[in-house]
Amino acid sequence: MVATVERRYAPPFHPLHVLLLGGVVTLFLGALLSDIGYARTYEIQWNNFASWLIAGGLVLAGIAVVCALIGLAPSRRTRNTVLHAVLLLATWIVGFFNALMHARDAWASMPGGLVLSVIVVVLACVATCFAVCAPRTGGVK
Fold first, then answer.
1. Contact (Cβ atoms closer than 8 angstroms) between residue 23 and residue 60
2. SS3 string of 15-44?
3. Residue ranges of the DUF2231 domain (predicted)?
4. Residue 3 — very low, low, confident or very high, per pLDDT cuts 50/70/90?
5. Where are the domains of the chain?
6. SS3 of 94, please?
7. Which residue has the higher pLDDT, 14 or 135?
8. DSSP secondary-structure letter at 136?
9. Angle value at C-alpha 26, between 11 and 41, nearest 5 degrees
10. pLDDT over 90 (residue 7)
11. DSSP state, 78?
12. Strand partners, 135
């Protein structure tokens, strides 16, 4: 007889979706660190780095939002998957406004750009937490 182990938690998302989320968090965190570097040194190149990192984060976040919306199929919908999709969409929207803030002159983008970068990183981390720690909807047999 084969013994089966019943697992309490398993991510309901495809591993590619979780990989995209890791890229989103990394790119937005890099933008935050670039904003901190600009706030400390006033070197304009840090603001350019942040703008490019935000653009890359928005591309990956857009693909991840589409994956999260696909994950909202009625058979797989849980409270955590809905919260994940909403938080990821909020991350993309705030990230878009952050990109618009960074498109301004370097002097005009601070301190608003730094504040928006912090908000985007926090939203991305919480959305990733909901994706990775979502409870499994069925048992393993």
1. yes
2. HHHHHHHHHHHHHHHHHHHHHHHHHHHCCH
3. 14-127
4. low
5. 15-132
6. helix
7. 14
8. P
9. 155
10. no
11. -
12. 9
